[in-house]
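Q: What structure does this chain adopt?
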Amino acid sequence: MAGPGGIRDFTPEWTVETQDAPDDWARTGAASTVSADDILFDYCALRASLSLEFAEPHLSACTRTGLRISPAIAGLAGPLLAFGLFAPDLVLAAGLAAGFAAFAVLVAWRTWLLAVATTPGFRRPPHIRELPETELPIYTVLVPLYHEASAVPGLARAMARLDWPADRLDIILLMEEADTCTQFAAACARWPAGTRQLVLPPGAPQTKPRALNYGLQHARGTLACIYDAEDRPHPSQLKAAFAAFARGGEDLACVQAPLAAYNHRESWLATHWAMEYAVQFGLLLPALSRMRLPILLGGTSNHFRMAVLRRMNGWDAWNVTEDADLGVRLARRGYRSAVITPPTLEEAPESLGIWVAQRSRWLKGFWQSWVVMMRAPRQAAAEMGWPGFLALQVMLAGTFLAALVHGPLMIGLCVGLLAGWIAPDGVGLLLLVLGYLSNAVAMLVTPGPKHMRRWQAVATLPLYWPLQTLAAVRALYGWLCAPHFWAKTPHGLTAHRG
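A:
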């Protein structure tokens, strides 16, 4: 029955008898409930949290079990620690050398991707042609919402503009039980007919991927995509994704739409964030797609074949970058990801506190994903191939280590140049210059209008890069002390005026 704003109540059409729960799940306590409705309720909630952990525990970040350290390496730990106590300068120098090496590899990698993306033969994917509506399947749109009441009205308008037959659009709003403000705002908004509102039961971890897994169990579509509360997707994005799947072959499991900021003029940080996204989605991801290498997916506007998504056991509810993790797992299963062109506009962080919290979550998730992959490195390399395995070493661990080096490298060079206390390190200076040059070129050649703020961002890169270290230090602390804590990025702070 329809409710306020076009939202209708939802009761699952399947029962527990059609979804046989594994014995491991029953032992967690779901079998102790007393009614059929409660059993279904608990089963869905448990599955949202632990589907990957039960099916493939070696691929989940639920436990912090990390790298397998051989006895030989473990035996060296004591002597190395003693050496560090007596020769701390050498240990520090070795650490800096490792950081410089990671930074150099990352610069070389990004330069190579830039060269691939700008070669004359490189072509971006074409836009969608018109398709008969009879050929279009049911498309599920999963929208996780948490403390997003202010963003709901704009989101509802954006969903209403999607160019897809209304009777084949399955929009599911996913909200936490305690978040009554967002629930009320969603009930009052005007959504496309048939939009459903699912309220998640309390449970751990309270993360976006857990909410997505809960919605996945109730999805009706053969294709699925994810949008965040502040997203304003291009109306033709669903049709572009459908066309990409139609011509991409069965091994194409996911297509990623580009993300762009609608508030890039609001602050200096927002401008740099927007330029990072322009380079990432305009150059780097298309280059990775062209070379058929793994893609670390964005957290929104990625589109999936539903059958593959379920075969992958959904998202890892315990990984704080569930998007990047899913991109890695797809590659391990032999699937590939590609890109499409219709973009999604979203909100860039405008203040330092929000920026650091978001970036630290990304870096912590990258480190989580790398640790999970390196539990069995030979197996991972065999599954995805050595080119993909080595590329992920750079994109996951390399990005994290390079972020740790940005600040110390810049501080050391500035002290040496301005105070004259120490001579500037030639290798470090060369790495910085090459890094800035490669990023400056990428920012200047990436598609989009060449407005003055783009040039200002290029000129102030030396001030922006050291901020990565703040986020990396926070990410490392978070991984050690609260690995599954989700640093929520607030949305709806800037109205979309586009």
